[in-house]
């Protein structure tokens, strides 16, 4: 490696690491702001918060890589141009393309790292982050008893205190309602003062109450045989100088949900899993469309007989394949059953031989016939191995024969059907019955078609979303190259480093990239654009812009200098005056 390469690489790595950390922090802050009200106030441990922040930070890396590459490359070549190092490099006979070569190689490695991160780290972190976030949402808020308000966070209890002293433990004017029996406010404890604190590693909450009373109104359910004055329920009042009440706080803990319940989401799937999901969704869509073609056969009998069930070839192929798989599984199950029965018969034969050899004679058929008859007879018999083998052969023959197609009746038979319908239609009562039956059939068919079409639309939507995620893994990684082609030439043209003007330019182009990406994904989800065009639109548009900036940088164009446009404008005015002078 030459010294010039080391110089440029060292000038690039520092800004890249810095900008990558800053971009991840900004994106992470925006992400976490969406869940602030769901996270804070839940008394989470620092470990859980750290795990959540770490996984969400990794989840932001697909967007952070391209932006960091563009910003770092722009700052690198901007600094080189600002300090005339780029001019010295060019004067030494080294072209701009040669100066960009070491950073381009580094960006290729970053692109590869970004792809593997999108394929492995990001789905894993998404699964961890969103499963943990779900558990945090389900967790109860932290214990917080406010003075003057009833607190119902503890199950089956309502607690109210008039005042809480500055130590956080001493309470004045305590009222505790017990609703464990679900009978209303029939049990209440009142105390002048008390203390509240947790015990046993915050698993239990203990109340020490002083100078109070416990009131209980019993609920007698059986009132039969009682006089009217006896309808009053018994009432108990107990005074105390000190009483202790302990509440279980296990419901305030966070229970973890099985992560496998979230693993089917597209954000949690890697490249190979998305391929498998797309294949399954495609087959489900085709089978759902096949159900639509089978509806006329069920509901419109005459129409299906007349025209035949014209199922598209690609749907029929998938249905035949599914039928073949189903029959093959049935054949395999029957073969396994036959093998098990063979093993059972073999064991029975061996046990009979052992009994015969040991001297315990097995009764003969005549001895059994001469014995006392059985009180009942078996009407069914256990299938033998030979019968199972015959059934297996039948399944094999059925599997080998072609799929049966509905036959279309002849024209003469169809005419007879029409004549029968017309004759019955002449009768008023039969006509009404026929019309009602036809109307009910049409409504039922419409309902079935509506449900099936909704299912197909949902399957298509899921397919588009999974396909978009598959392309995004590649597109966001390749975006690093597009951003480099924009950032490096712009830095050479602007010739200004630091975090000022280069940051503004980078943010401008990143907004363009982000808007195009979001718009393309939206159109791809709705089916207006193909998924490839929608996801790759940003790269397709920005890549030629990067090549244009590269060409301008090689020609030392002054696109961002005001004097350049002043001179161009003055030359344009002079040209206009010359044209007007010649015309006069």
List the helices and strands and how they pair.
Layout: H1 3-33, H2 36-39, H3 46-59, H4 61-82, H5 85-91, H6 96-138, E1 157-164, E2 170-178, E3 187-199, E4 204-217, E5 235-248, H7 271-299, H8 301-307, H9 313-357, H10 365-370, H11 385-400, H12 411-426, H13 428-494, H14 501-525, H15 531-554, H16 562-583
Low-confidence stretches: 364-410
Number of domains: 3
Tell me the radius of gyration.
41 Å
Coarse morphology? extended
Helix content: 55-70%
Continuous helix count: 16
Strand order of the largest sheet: 1-2-3-4-5
How much strand content do the residues show?
Answer: 5-15%
Helix/strand-derived category reads alpha+beta
Number of strands: 5
Biggest sheet, open or closed, and with what strands and sense?
Answer: 5 strands, antiparallel
Q: Summarize model confidence as the mean pLDDT.
A: 79
Span from first to last CA?
65 Å
H-E string: HHHHHHEEEEEHHHHHHHHHH
Structural write-up:
The protein is α+β, with helices and mostly antiparallel strands and 584 residues long. The chain folds into three domains: 3-139 and 471-509 and 535-560, no CATH class; 157-252, no CATH class; 274-359 and 381-457, no CATH class. Helix content is 65%, strand content 10%. The chain has 16 helices and five strands. The protein has helices at residues 3-33, 36-39, 46-59, 61-82, 85-91, 96-138, 271-299, 301-307, 313-357, 365-370, 385-400, 411-426, 428-494, 501-525, 531-554, 562-583; strands spanning 157-164, 170-178, 187-199, 204-217, 235-248. The protein has a five-stranded antiparallel beta sheet, with no helix packed on it. Strand 1 (157-164) and strand 2 form a beta hairpin. It is extended, with a radius of gyration of 41 Å. Residues 364-410 have low confidence and may be disordered.
């Amino acid at each position: 490696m030459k010294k010039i390469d080391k110089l440029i690489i060292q000038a690039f790595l520092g800004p890249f690491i810095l900008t990558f950390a800053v971009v991840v922090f900004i994106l992470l802050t925006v992400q976490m702001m969406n869940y602030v009200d769901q996270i804070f106030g839940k008394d989470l441990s620092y470990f859980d918060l750290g795990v959540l922040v770490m996984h969400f930070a990794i989840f932001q890396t697909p967007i952070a890589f391209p932006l960091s590459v563009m910003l770092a490359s722009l700052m690198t070549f901007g600094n080189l141009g600002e300090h005339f190092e780029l001019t010295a490099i060019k004067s030494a006979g080294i072209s701009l393309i040669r100066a960009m070569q070491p950073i381009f190689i580094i960006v290729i490695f970053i692109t590869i790292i970004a792809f593997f991160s999108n394929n492995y780290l990001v789905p894993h972190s998404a699964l961890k982050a969103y499963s943990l976030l779900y558990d945090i949402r389900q967790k109860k808020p932290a214990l917080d008893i406010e003075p003057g308000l009833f607190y119902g966070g503890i199950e089956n209890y309502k607690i109210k205190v008039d005042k809480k002293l500055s130590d956080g433990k001493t309470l004045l004017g305590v009222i505790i309602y017990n609703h464990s029996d679900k009978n209303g406010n029939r049990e209440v404890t009142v105390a002048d003062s008390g203390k509240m604190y947790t015990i046993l590693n915050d698993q239990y909450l203990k109340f020490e109450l002083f100078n109070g009373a416990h009131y209980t109104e019993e609920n007698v359910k059986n009132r039969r045989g009682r006089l009217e004055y006896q309808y009053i329920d018994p009432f108990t009042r107990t005074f105390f100088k000190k009483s202790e009440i302990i509440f279980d706080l296990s419901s305030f803990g966070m229970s973890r949900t099985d992560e496998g319940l979230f693993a089917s989401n597209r954000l949690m799937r890697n490249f190979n899993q998305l391929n498998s999901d797309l294949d399954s969704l495609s087959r489900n869509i085709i089978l759902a469309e096949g159900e639509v073609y089978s509806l006329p056969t069920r509901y419109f009998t005459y129409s299906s007989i007349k025209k035949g069930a014209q199922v598209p070839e690609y749907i029929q192929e998938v249905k035949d394949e599914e039928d073949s798989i189903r029959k093959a599984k049935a054949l395999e199950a029957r073969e396994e059953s036959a093998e098990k029965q063979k093993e059972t018969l073999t064991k029975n034969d061996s046990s009979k031989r052992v009994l015969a050899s040991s001297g315990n004679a097995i009764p003969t058929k005549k001895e059994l016939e001469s014995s006392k008859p059985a009180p009942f007879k078996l009407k069914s018999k256990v299938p033998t191995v030979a019968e199972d083998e015959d059934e297996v052969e039948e399944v094999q023959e059925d599997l080998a024969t072609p799929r049966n197609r509905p036959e279309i009746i002849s024209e003469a038979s169809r005419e007879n059907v029409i004549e029968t319908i017309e004759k019955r239609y002449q009768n008023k009562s039969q006509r009404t019955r026929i019309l009602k039956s036809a109307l009910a059939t049409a409504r039922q068919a419409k309902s079935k078609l509506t449900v099936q079409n909704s299912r197909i639309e949902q399957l298509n939507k899921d397919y588009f979303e999974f396909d978009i995620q598959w392309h995004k893994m590649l597109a966001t990684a390749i975006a690093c190259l597009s951003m480099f082609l924009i950032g490096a030439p712009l830095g050479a043209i602007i010739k200004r480093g630091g975090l000022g003007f280069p940051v503004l330019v980078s943010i401008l182009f990143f907004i363009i990239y982000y808007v195009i990406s979001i718009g393309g994904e939206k159109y791809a989800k709705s089916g207006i654009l193909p998924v490839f065009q929608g996801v790759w639109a940003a790269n397709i548009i920005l890549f030629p812009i990067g090549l244009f900036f590269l060409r301008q940088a090689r020609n030392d164009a002054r696109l961002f200098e005001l004097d350049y446009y002043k001179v161009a404008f003055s030359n344009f005015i002079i040209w206009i005056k010359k044209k007007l002078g010649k015309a006069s």
